Amino acid sequence: MALPIDLWLIHPESEMCDAFRTRFEKLPRVTVIESRFEDLPPHDCFVTAANAFGIMNAGIDAAVIHFHGVELMQRIQHRILDEYLGEQPIGTSFIESTGNPDYPFVAHSPTMRVPGSISGTDKVYAATWASLLAVYQHSVRQTDETQKINTVVFPAMGAGFGGVPFKEVARQMAVAYAHYLSPPHRMNWDTVIGRQKAIAYDEGKLVVR
């Protein structure tokens, strides 16, 4: 059973925020914030829509590093070198401490190997799903309640360098959160087909190949 979390979705543009509101309308504990990263109030974990090598010098990743310091990027890169032999696969995520008690964690979650278009793929879903799992796995291991992650902030995964349209970003992220909230109780092909259709199709039309 998934642990409850408060999900914040942020973006500085109203069009993206409107897409978030439409797709997440029926999902619980979601707040959409039209904001830059720098203006966010305290929260437990921010998800970085990263590349596979932890080079965080552009886009919202650069804002995260400017806020927390270059040592955070160095720690993330060292973990990628040690744990993933230098290249973190898309569909994985790990939690790293920031050292700031008001913003204690980030989740490093690649949406792409290197900057470039991921439109027409399920990589937004994969990165969002991996981030939710990393948060879940972190929290279930904690015996100290103060170290659990209760508030998770997501940017628009894949909307920048990834070139994914805002509505499709919101759709894939919402599917990942819906799957997080309702994990299957058994494994069979009906379950697999249902989840795959939710990811790949929208209104009966194939949108992810």
TrEMBL record:
Highest taxon, organism lineage: Bacteria
SMART domains: A1pp
Entry-linked PROSITE patterns: MACRO
The Macro domain, residue ranges: 17-209
Protein name as it appears in the record: RNase III inhibitor
